[in-house]
Write a structure and sequence with these properties.
single chain, 60% helix, Arc Repressor Mutant, subunit A, 2 domains
Amino acid sequence: MRLLTFLQSAENQKEITFDTIEKQMQITADEVESFIIEAVRTKMIRCKIDHLARKVIIDSTVQRTFTKQHWQALKEKLESWKTNLAMINTNLSTLMAAQGTTK
């Protein structure tokens, strides 16, 4: 249950302090690092521990729910990638033509 609570909290944040994790998970300061390591082992979250700043930097989490907004964001990202790849293809074709080679 703690893991799901942590994942939900991490979904919307890029960083979480150790103090916040202690309070939300109701664990001691000594347990925070092992809790984070266990969470990472599940492969449901990717993060880094910043010991000096006493915080966790979130790279990505598995979504508990996939809403219409998530689908829209995914669509926009894929369309952006498609556009960028088309531009790369055009640029490479132009470069190859300028060098006198063909595909």
